[in-house]
What we know:
flat; two-stranded antiparallel sheet; single chain; Arc Repressor Mutant, subunit A; about 190 residues; 2 domains; 2 strands; mainly alpha
Amino acid sequence: MGSTTLRKNKIKPQRLNDKQIQxxxxxxxxxxxxxxxxxxxxxxxxNAGIRLLASPAVDSYIGSLRNKKxxxxxxxADDIIRELAYCIFRxxxxxxxxxxxxxxxxxxxxxxxxxxTIDSIRQTEHYDNEGNHLKTTTELKMVxxxxxxxxxxxxxxxxxxxxxxxHLVLSxxxxxxxxxxxxxxxxxxxxxx
Length: 193
């Protein structure tokens, strides 16, 4: 890979050498900087991976590779937010038939918005002692609604981490249990206020 690849990705050719370009492509495989640096042949891959990711030119090139990858799958932020919204606003009623019973015999009958919020499906076949089929039970595990709400709130900036620190301030007398008799003049001043 040479300057043609770099020009396509809008990076000036003199900024990256072939080894850095190879690192960026290896990094895109699994986002593991140490493994990528090792695959390219750096002698101390852990340190090299950290150093390469800290390089603005390498970081920019990796960013352009990531954007190209996202463009290939046509994944946009709006799509992700829409999927998150399905999880937040889903209505359990949509899993039920007209009699109010949950009916998932044919998953294709479920609304698309509900199908997209299913995390996993597990079917169990039940048989009697003679091996005759009795029934099939289907379990759906839905994406956590609370988790989706939490992610949505983070995205909207409605949820920030707060750290509360409480300090207990004790005087020397309080620490060692020394009782101090109130000063009569101090007491009178406090009473006047």
